[in-house]
Amino acid sequence: MSDENDLKKMDESRSPRVGAKASQAAALLATVAESAATPVPSAGDTVEPPVPDTTLTPPILEVRPPAQGPRGRRGGRVERVTGAVQPDAIAAILAARHGDPFAVLGPHQIEPGTWEVRAFFPGAQGITIVGWHDETALGTMERAHPEGFFVGRIPSKERPGYRFRIEYPLATRVVHDIYGFGDILTPAELNQVREVGSDATYRVLGAQRRNVGGAEGFLFAVWAPNARRVSVVGDFNDWDGRRNPMRLRHDGGIWELFIPDLVERMNYKYEIVGAGGDILPLKADPVAFAAEHPPATSSVLTGAPDYAWRDAAWMAGRGTHDPRKTPISIYECHLGSWARVPEEGNRYLTYRELAERLIPYVKELGFSHIELLPITEFPFDGSWGYQPISLFAPTSRHGSPEDFKEFVEAAHAAGIGIILDWVPGHFPNDAHGFAYFDGTHLYEHADPRQGFHQDWGTYIYNYGRQEVSAFLVSNARFWLERYHLDGLRVDAVASMLYLDYSRKHGEWVPNRYGGNENLEAIDFLRKMNEAAYAHSPGAITVAEESTAWPGVSHPTYTGGLGFGFKWNMGWMHDTLRFIGKEPVHRRYHHHDLTFGLLYAFSENFVLPLSHDEVVHGKGSILGRMPGDQWQRFANLRAYYGFMWGHPGKKLIFMGAEFGQEREWNHDAGLDWDSLDDPLHAGVKGLIGDLNAAYRAIPALHERDCDAEGFRWLVSDDAENNVIAWARHGLEDSLAVVVSNFTPVVREGYRIGVPEPGFYREAVNTDAGIYGGSNVGNLGGVQAEPTPSHGQPYSLTLTLPPLATLILERTEG
After folding, report:
1. With contact defined as beta carbons under 8 Å apart, do 441 and 450 qualify?
2. CA-based nearest residue to 528, from 484, 490, 567
3. pLDDT for 698-711, tens place per residue?
């Protein structure tokens, strides 16, 4: 094929980037330089090299005898040459179809003491070779092709150091030769990328700031073992895939290229020629540390985060407590819809604005943690973040990575931990993402029975591929270590564990034993948890797992999955079903309140009232409550009291803390004007007091995950819809929780208790300050030496209507 045909095909097939700033790129062309060194052959690596293709084979270079020329700075003569490189080699470079651009471009020793330097700079009028440290002319280069291919010779006993002074129509630039640099990544680094549990993915891959021989720039590295060619394209090279093709390091199927002189905030992607020879849609960097604001899809140069943190005391203190014995109360939040700025086009709040508004609000209410719906960059707002593409980049919707770091630091300064909703179970099929990344099913399974999620229209990671599991585990470590996050809530764990999840017979592939367990996913989850707990003391992992899979929150050495906690989805479904019934019918559903205690201590549970319960026509939590306006709010308050008194850590989704009426809408802020209504303000006040009691009374949190901390007092009074239990702390702390789920005041209700003393009314959800009827026990009651309910002492209580009491035993 002629060079003209090569160029024509390239122009027709290249995927253009919408909105590329051509004029800016032309001025920045000079910042692009070019690098050398041949690939290191694979030594026992399992990654197969690309399929051989004669159009990609490095051409044989014909070298003509040198001509006389001016003497260079190093004491040798600079030679001028014409046509030293074969036309087919030049054509392959111009068409970006050469399998090894380093075999053509950069410096090449053609005989002892003589080096030939070759460069490709479209649009350049002339190039002079100048010194590495100054602009002393070492000689000129001759145009070997009108498209911008230049050749020159320089005498040197060793590999020369030099730069290019490039003349453009409107500017002159001095740049390094990208193809004048040798291999950057070491064999050890390449091997570490494949180690599941290592942090090498985010230390090695992506666009990393590097200083190479005194030259500042970015080292680009991407895993694409089956690609025939990978180029870095961006604002700095007019998005032209011919200009910066990368070197394939056969050690691990990783392509690398060091580009000096680039500055942060430039946009870039990878242009990949796939295994079949076709140019794929431009791909975002899988390990990009920043990304453009959607709907734009480019990665953004910023380098791996390495901040100077001011939260050393928080990080040190975090690891001194057993999370199972601490009061964990989580405020689940979607940053894009917590609040908006309507006077400015309904824009999002920035991370720094959220630090100023959200964090003080959460602190006021007494929550211990904020759980963020996914903030790893995602293309589609309607996915709420659950279909991410740039797993290492905080979404740019709210600001820069540095802004997100400030948000986390502000939370820690306020004594609040940050948990990230993390999505390693699937990824979207957007063309710029992971799907068919190098022309093969690299990140996903090729078989749709294993690799395609039918419910969500997304691809499923191939956990059996070592590099994929290593990528995901490294990502978990990245958020915990580089952004100091305090936990990961892992989304859709059930869909990962079961090969037949949401599939009919014949739509799934059994494992090697004939079962439906995804053995590779199980292994991945265990290694992820082991890495998280080994490297981030005090951080927690939480599984959203909706089945009866055993040992989800048990240690891996006992056969468990290794999570710290598991969402108690059964408790949530049962109790919401109960509280949604009219009180007159609740006697027939009393088991919905008691059944959860049969398995409450089989895992370390979190009780979740999450975003999933206020979408898709389910209404709000308040919207599920029966009765008139007063009864609806009374039911809600009684339910919250029941929840905070129940064993297990607590989680509610934003808006539920003040009883938002409408269902959650991700495109709008919460209904903050509701707080003008005393009933809504009363719910907010109750949540603050419940969190305060949960923290202050050890019995309510120290044994959340221990059956020894729970004792039934009244479990069978379905007729009156009354339920009661005792909670015990590690020492002598004792609390009694009593709920009355009828709108009837029950006077003189006797409940047995295990210890004598005065039982202070710590929380009464019917208190007038919350909007209740103010029925209660005048601050508390004294235990009587009258046995009841199998206990040696008892309390005679007035049970308020549709209310929960939390009583703390004190001496007296």
Report:
1. no
2. 490
3. 999 999 999 999 99
Predicted confidence at residue 251, as pLDDT, reads 77
* CA dist 372 → 72, 419, 434 (Å): 61, 6, 23
Categorize the per-residue pLDDT at 42 as very low, low, confident or very high, splitting at 50, 70 and 90. Answer: very low
Residue 350: is its pLDDT beyond 70? yes
Other beta carbons within 10 angstroms of residue 348's beta carbon come to: 21
The contacts of residue 365 (CB under 8 Å, 6+ apart) are 331, 657, 684, 687, 688, 691
DSSP state of 320: T
Helix (H, G, I), strand (E, B) or coil at 456: coil
Q: What are phi and psi of 291, to 5 degrees?
A: -145, 160
285/292 Cα distance (integer angstroms): 12
- Is a pLDDT exceeding 50 seen at residue 309? yes
C-alpha neighbours within 13 Å on the C-beta side of residue 435: 18
**Cα(286)–Cα(442) distance, rounded to whole angstroms?**
12
Q: Which of 45, 421, 486, 491 is catalytic?
A: 491
Please report, rounded to a whole number, the percentage of residues in the chain having pLDDT higher than 70: 90
Q: CA-to-CA distance for 666 and 673, rounded, in angstroms?
A: 18
Catalytic status, residue 545: no
- Cis geometry, peptide bond prior to residue 295 (ω within 30 degrees of 0): yes
Catalytic annotation present for 238 = no
User: Dmax of the chain from CA atoms?
Assistant: 115
Residue with the bigger pLDDT between 82 and 360: it is: 360
Point out the catalytic residue in the list 261, 285, 520, 544: 544
Do residues 640 and 687 touch, judged by C-beta distance below 8 A? yes
Query: In this model, does residue 61 exceed pLDDT 80?
Result: no
Q: What is the DSSP letter of 166?
A: E
How far apart, in whole angstroms, are the C-alpha atoms of residue 257 and residue 249? 10
Contact predicate 479/462, CB 8 Å: no
For 38-62, the DSSP string reads PPPPPSS-SSPPPPP-GGGSPPPPP
Mark residue 746 as left, alpha or beta (left: phi above 0; alpha: psi -120 to 50; beta: remaining).
beta
**Position 430 pLDDT exceeds 60:** yes
At 103 the three-state DSSP class reads helix
Is the pLDDT reported for residue 63 higher than 50?
no
Nearest to 717 by CA among 625, 797, 628: 797
User: Comparing 17-21, 170-174, 409-413, 677-681, which segment has the lowest mean pLDDT?
Assistant: 17-21
How far apart are the C-alpha atoms of 586 and 589, rounded to whole Å?
5
Other C-beta atoms closer than 10 Å to the C-beta of 706 total 15
Angle in degrees, CA 199, 204, 208, rounded to 5: 120
* Per-residue pLDDT band at 250 (split at 50, 70, 90): confident
SS3 state at 620: coil
Q: Where are the beta strands (DSSP E) in 473-524?
A: 487-490
Structure tokens at 9: 């095909």
Residue pair 334/381 in contact by the 8 Å Cβ criterion = no
Q: With CA atoms as reference, report the closest residue to 116 among 98, 99, 129.
A: 129
Q: Residues 758, 783: contact at Cβ < 8 Å?
A: yes
How many other C-beta atoms are found inside a 10 Å radius of the C-beta of residue 59?
A: 18
Q: What are phi and psi of 484, to 5 degrees?
A: 55, 30
Contacts of 553-557 spanning 24+ positions with Cβ under 8 A: 553/603, 553/604, 553/605, 554/603, 556/526, 556/529, 556/530
